[in-house]
Write a structure and sequence with these properties.
179 residues, alpha+beta, globular
Length: 179
């Protein structure tokens, strides 16, 4: 039986950024200005490649986040924020590298009530972009899947990483990010 005591969520942040930010929360003009500035100041940094083409990235990201919000509410979620903060379950070497081995913050999953957190297998933006939809899981749904798995947490995560790279976590209340 997998317990949330054994699980944590991880947020990665490039060294040139501040943790626990979502560019979609800024007014559109500020978001564009910041995106172009970050892309210009960090050429060749994977995490900012999407910002170099922000006029194409931004509308899709906004649409995807509206979808995530609506989907989460339909599953019984009670989001405090309109745009979630992104984490991954149990960490990701892939994302750590993608964000320049920068700032890493961890939060125990058991600290977050089920109505404030959701999950997708893999990157939600990529899934939404490909299909115009995605499968979202509540905390209970994901734990049921994990508890139905015959191996250990580590084996489950390795199998998931092989297929999806990581389990994305959407945190809908910033209050859990304060130290």
């Amino acid at each position: 039986m997998i317990h949330t005591d054994d699980l944590y969520i991880v947020n990665y942040c490039h060294p040139n950024c501040m943790p626990f930010m979502n560019i979609c929360r800024l007014p559109k003009e500020e978001a564009f200005s910041l995106a172009y500035k970050m892309a210009e100041e960090n050429p060749g940094v994977t995490a900012f490649g999407r910002f170099a083409d922000f006029e194409n990235y931004y509308p899709g990201r906004m649409k995807q986040e509206e979808y995530l919000y609506s989907k989460f509410v339909s599953l019984g979620g009670k989001p405090v924020e309109k745009h979630p903060l992104s984490f991954v379950l149990q960490g990701s070497v892939f994302l750590d590298h993608w964000f320049g081995n920068g700032i890493v913050n961890k939060i125990r999953l058991n600290k977050i009530p089920p109505e404030l957190i959701s999950f997708t297998l893999g990157d939600s933006m990529t899934q939404y972009k490909k299909a115009g939809t995605l499968t979202m899981y509540t905390k209970e749904m994901l734990l049921n899947i994990m508890n139905g798995y015959s191996g250990s947490i580590e084996e489950f995560m390795t199998e998931t990483e092989d297929k999806y790279h990581y389990i994305e976590v959407q945190l809908w209340d910033d209050g859990y990010c304060k130290s």
